[in-house]
Predict the structure.
Amino acid sequence: MIRGTTRLIAHLGYPIDPVKAPMIYNPYFEHHRIDAAVVPMGVEARDFAAVLGAVFRLTNIVGALVTMPHKVTTASLLDVCSDEVRTAGSCNAVRRREDGSLVGDMFDGAGFVLGLRRKGFVCEGARCLVVGAGGVGSAIAAALAGAGVKSIALFDLDEAASKGLRRRLADRYPGLEVTFTEPDPAGHDLVVNATPLGMHAEDALPLDASKLAPSTFVGEVVMKQEITPLLRAARGIGCRTQVGTDMLFEQIPLYLKFFGLRDAGPEELRALARLA
């Protein structure tokens, strides 16, 4: 129940209907009698900067979760940011400090890599393809670099986004091999779809799944449906896979700590979630 005492976490994005976080956070808060709530708020790109500033004028705001398409924009609106935000060039968590300044962090990449490790994937020395260099793709690439992968091949239709990400990765990880490529999964140990392709039934595949090898691990960020066409094709070939919500369950404990709220593990969050 939301009361006048309830501390709010805004969930900002557009479109906002695919988001899963409120169905994970809010049952957890209810179970532990934490007087807080995640509230989805749909905001289009043209209004985002103004809305973010207005949200943090609320006296009962804890922070904001940021989802597509605002993660890159958010990074430019912060007073203080983490190394992860600087490397990725994107941000998905914002809170206000006592002096009124906004501090941001990025947990998509960490959540994605934690999910990989939980499933037994060895990041160290891996050859990776990341399709999509937007907010979530850049965060995943940065986290993979930090996890010790050997190489990252990037593909994005936005050439400037790919070049910017490559430059930031080179600055922080000078020994990492980063290339631009077509979305060809051949020869890679890990393939990541970090695009919105797969949210809708009519979407094209983000890559040629017929070129996947059974030994390739395929990761997805789309959460609107758990088994996207790409994951279905990959599983048919024999690939190990990671669904989009795996990344979410792994990163929520990081969010809770960032917001100063009671910590939880992914297993507890899964048990309490109401995603159906």
In short: The radius of gyration is 18 Å. Residues 7-107+247-272 form a domain with the Rossmann fold fold (CATH 3.40.50.10860). The chain has ten helices and twelve strands. Residues 232 and 241 are 9 Å apart (CA to CA).
